[in-house]
Design a protein that fits this description.
2-enoyl-CoA Hydratase, Chain A, domain 1; 8-stranded mixed beta sheet; 3-stranded antiparallel beta sheet; 10 helices; elongated; alpha/beta
């Protein structure tokens, strides 16, 4: 084989190695965390809970992925939320507890607002860090029904209802609650309230009756919550990360990572549009019936 042939083979080999390396880097970028994805050593995973808590699946999935990642020694949950749907808050709380049972350190970091359902989520952590001015607390449950009956009478609209049970149309916008319906709703939210209080009492190692004294829906600052034993320490996000690293035994400043979002495909776009349409439809339906069942 001549010199030129050897040169051609060498060039092809170099190009092939380059292509393989590029492919591996792209593959790593898809499946490794977003920030400093190639960093070595132990890391702290960051999970963000922002806005009203309405669905839990994406957040639960993030926590689960960090839980199974051996390089992730601790998880910091950054909370910027006024609360939200009961079951969604409970599912995120449960997943944080599962992460802890698998050996992960979990620290909750409260931002500007971390109240009600967001505080429920924070109770799943080993430690809670809040800013002195954070708005938190609001331990309670609310369920509300609009009543447009008088308005409908004025414009001549009357609803004819056929139902299979006494409570099947409970919460109808065309009439007020009956005494029996009001008692049923009271019992329902009372049960959820007891669940909330018991979670707080267990997480904060407080007596249930002591929790009930401050579980009246009141909002409080981070400093007030700290003085009441609802928060472990005062500080910002960096303090929470440092604490997570210390509790997990990470030496030096911890590397914080977030899950990388996968590249958007046409099918992702279609799913997003379909999800938006579903959300709009559900909001229209909820506003027409408007039964709010929230940890707020």
């Amino acid at each position: 084989m001549g010199n030129k042939s050897w040169i051609v083979v060498l060039i092809v080999a170099i190009c092939g190695a380059g292509v393989v390396s590029l492919f591996l880097l792209v593959l790593a970028g898809l499946f490794l965390p977003e920030r400093q994805s190639l960093a070595l050593g132990d890391k702290v995973g960051l999970v963000e809970v922002t806005g009203t808590i309405s669905i839990s699946d994406p957040i639960v999935d993030e926590i689960a992925r960090f839980t199974e990642d051996r390089a992730i020694k601790a998880i910091v949950v950054r909370l910027e939320s006024p609360g939200g749907v009961v079951a969604a808050s409970q599912e995120i709380y449960d997943e944080l507890r599962r992460a802890r049972s698998k050996g992960k350190v979990v620290v909750a970091s409260m931002g500007g607002v971390a109240a009600s359902g967001a505080y429920y989520v924070a109770c799943g952590a080993d430690s809670i860090v809040a800013n002195p001015g954070t708005l938190t607390g609001s331990i309670g449950v609310i369920m509300s029904f609009p009543n447009t009956g008088e308005l409908l009478k004025k414009i001549g609209i009357e609803m004819q209802v056929v139902k299979t049970g006494e409570f099947k149309d409970m919460g109808s916008i065309t009439r007020p609650l009956t005494p029996d319906e009001r008692q049923l709703v009271s019992d329902l939210i009372g049960d959820v309230y007891d669940q909330f209080v018991n979670v707080v009492a267990d997480a904060r190692r407080m007596d249930v009756e002591a929790v009930k004294k401050i579980a009246d829906g009141r909002v409080m600052t981070g400093r007030q919550a700290y003085n009441l034993g609802l928060v472990d320490r005062l500080g910002g996000f960096k303090d929470a990360v440092t604490l997570a690293g210390q509790l997990a035994g990470i030496s030096g400043e911890p590397t914080v990572v977030k899950r990388r979002k996968h590249a958007t495909t046409l099918w992702d776009l279609i799913d997003n549009l379909r999800g938006m349409a579903s959300t709009v439809a559900s909001r229209v339906n909820r506003e027409s019936v408007s039964i709010e069942y929230l940890l707020q």
